[in-house]
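S.,

Sequence below, as promised.
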Amino acid sequence: MLVCSTANETLNGGSMLSFGRTVILVDNYERALKFYVDKLGLTLATDIDAGERRFVHLTFPDQPNAGLWLLQAETEKDREAIGQQAGDQPIVVIYTDNFDREFERLKNASVEFLGEPLAADGAVSAHFSDLYGNKFVLVQVN
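The prediction came back faster than expected:
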């Protein structure tokens, strides 16, 4: 499928429907699940043992088609990228319609925030990290 970004047209009769998954490299599925499911509140949608690989997909509670794909690091390059997949930038932005509630819920779940919430330009946001150091942003746009 070819996509023409300047005209926002899809060529060859196909269409891009929605966002699916962001891959997060992990060193241990069980530790990762404890963070993403127990602390962040994502839903375990798929957990398939496929021999040498395991397919673990997490979704947001009201968005069953969007979420994270936890993927065990297999190579040395993969292992070096754990926690650094986006460098010093956020790997995922999570939108909420109630920032204060989610911020408090995540703090109470011992999620590590990297600073205090910042309100600017009609939005409030705060950065946090996962158990590996990947950075996420929690945002409410007003």
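The longest strand covers residues 63-72.

Coffee later?
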